[in-house]
Amino acid sequence: MYRPTGQWGDEGDGDELFRSLRQQLSREAQVYVEQLEDVYEELAMVRRQYSRSVKELKDEIAQLEHDVDRAGSAFSPKKEPEKELERRLSGRRDALRSERRSYRQDVRPLKKEARQLAAELQRFEMSEEWIEEVGDAFGL
Fold first, then answer.
1. DSSP states of 75-100 as a string?
2. This model's pTM is above 0.90
3. How far apart are CA 59 and CA 18, in angstroms?
4. What residues does each domain of the chain span?
5. What is the pLDDT of residues 90-124, one digit of tens each?
């Protein structure tokens, strides 16, 4: 295998250079891994919060629908309670749609950031592999 003859310095310089590059890339990759983990944790938190909100709204909507059906089936010359229930039901459905929109707005940037961090991490992993291949080619 080819080894430098010392023209560029003593033979240990190449080993140290590659070791240093590997360490630097490992540290930088670790930063991306930590950032990616933080983004995934935040994304999970947003999803849990959204799930709770949606469940509460769906439960409330189901109860209101039940109340509307019960009010509509009862013989009553005055339909005011049913109209009030339908108004509240419509409001809860609007709140559910709003919650879904809000969720999408909260999640999109997190997913985008996660994709970018994953791409950066992959770039660093590829750089690390390239450094190892070059080091192996020179017997370092």
1. --S--HHHHHHHHHHHHHHHHHHHHH
2. no
3. 60
4. 12-134
5. 898 999 999 989 998 988 888 888 888 888 888 87
